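tool=predict chain=A
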Amino acid sequence: MDAKPEFGIPMKVEEGIFLLKMPIPYTLDHINLWLLRDADGWTIVDSGFFSEESVLLWNKVLADFCNNEAIQKIIITHFHPDHVGMAQWLAHKTNAPVHMSQIEYLTTQMACQDYSEEQKLVRCQYFERFGVGQEEVIQLQNRIGGYVVGVPEAPISYQRLVDGESIIINHEAWQLLQYSGHSPGHICLYHPERHLLISGDQVLPNISPNISVQFNEPEADPLADYLDSLDNLSTFSNKMLVLPSHGRVFKGLHERLTALKKGHYKSLDQLRRFCQQGRSGLEVIEELYGNCLSLFNLSLATGEAMAHLNYLIKIGDMSRTGDAVYEYKTN
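tool=predict ok
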């Protein structure tokens, strides 16, 4: 696929498979959604971030490109707002069922709820213990999250996608692969005969997906989960055409998996050296990502830095001390 896709104009990548590029309000300004021919209708994979622009684009796609044919299924790879944001709008519009893994459906429900006062307090402590300054903590506390704007309505009901099972699209079986790390139960779709992998955010061609510890599970080790998922994916054929949620369609799965692993191992080695003397979490953030982060990127960087530190703690290479503010030191 040499041509560059344009927003709202489906582009053929394989027989019966079309890339639909849609806008999202982040530095990474787009998401790749997928339209798959499904008998006398269509299956949609991922829905996009809700906006009036996306409503207009989707209305045009459904009427002009899909010819108002039946939408058979709406498959959501994971709960992040650029993927699930328009799922319920599409369900209302098309009467198609939403398909998700159970943990992603339940996490979407939770993410779309307002924080209680106690949750806000715990979230503030999460940032404070990591060394984030009080002014930034207050700004983060008051920041309107992506779910408020981008997911006006969580999916009301769903059909469960189960790891290891298959889903039939256009009389063909796509295997369901469920991974954690980037999200708790991210679904990839794999077609072994056609050597196709709809990878969602699990494997991206140019960047690593965010791997973060969340405030409500501060001792989690998502990086170990993510690295395990890359090892699992490396057992699949390198002939595959990978259809990611951001960036270009690409071949060379094994090479990309190796590069993703090397990137994380490099960061881990960097932290082993940097924390020879005790460091706060904020110092670790600045070492890995610099000190000119936007509020949104500071939030992501906190979770990702903590994921790398938690990984090192779990394998015995790092210790954490302190109560009000954590200090990290290489063993």
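The chain has a mean pLDDT of 96. The CA atoms of residues 127 and 133 lie 8 Å apart.
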